[in-house]
Amino acid sequence: MRKNKLSLVTGILTLALVFGFIGFTIGYYGQSNDISQTELNKEAQQKLINALLQAQENRIYSDNQKNNQTVINAGDTITKNTKLIYKIKYTQCGSVIKEEKNPTVDLIGLNEEGLKNYVNENYQNSEVESFSKKEVVIFKIENRVCPNHYMVSIHQGYIAVYKYDEEGNKHLLERTKIPVNRLPVIDQEKLQRGILLEDVKEVNQLLEDFSS
To answer: DSSP 3-state helix, strand, coil percentages of the chain (rounded to 5)?
Structure first.
């Protein structure tokens, strides 16, 4: 925009100088018989003015086209074909889960700055990690355990298995028949804190170790 204003001012000053020069030339040579009436007739003057005006318009148009192209290239926007990835890091288990979704209607058409404002207003603990017309990544930190993790701990004096739900809440899944007091003190301390595991296979292996 600033460049367009500068071009416009420059063009106006140029035209003012041209018109001043033409006026001076006409006034100076109007009383001289050395220049014929044909050379200074109105048609020739008008052609000269039209040519100067057209040249100025062409230059301004060319500058505008360059500026518009720069804006388009520098500002990608989200389209319905943009890959939208939500990436969540769970601090208590260290897991990072990615989920790919299609852009919703309220996201389509947003550029990077617009998306950052949208995320700040609508998502907590989130930020735009990367942005392009092809792919957008929104990163979020959750201070909890991610869904579907297991914890082996203690319930009523026995080893128990808990499972985390989508909201990060822990639910009792099974209380085993393995009493905690028969285990070494170091294992009892681990169970008091809770042993976090990722899948059922790891849970079964740990229970097998404790029961042996």
So the answer is: 45, 25, 30
